[in-house]
Amino acid sequence: MAATQRRPKGSVPPHGTVARYVHGSCRCDACRRERRRYETRLAMGYSVKVPSHPTVRRLQALAVIGWSLRDLEAETGIDRSTIRLWRNGRWATLSRVGAGQIADLYARLWRTPGPSAEARAHAQRNDWLPPHPALLPKGE
Ligand SMILES: [Zn+2]
Description:
By secondary structure, this protein is mainly alpha-helical. It is built from 7 helices and 2 strands, in the order ααβαααβαα. Helices cover about 55% and strands about 5% of the residues.
């Protein structure tokens, strides 16, 4: 930050802050850099990837006890087509946020039989494994 920078009196935030970028509409290097860092932190939860294996197991286990994609969509608000791809192990990784949502879901439902006979039959045809305490999230 240049010490020679003239600062109008009043409430204008200093350079190198998101506030100056937004409220002062400043596009100097310091303000832009700080703005980028801020956006990165915001996006972090979605851009950080984790291995999908525990999520796959949790979703398959929930199917074994009768939780269908439709049920899980209703429980989480996550689109069922996304849940299906996760459950099928289509991807080696997924966002940390998504994995955390499914971990929470599993912790909530793993001992509660779901309503779907179709989900149970589907799980049986695929030899999916039932819920297990080891799949509970550990402070994720
Ligand atoms: Zn600035």
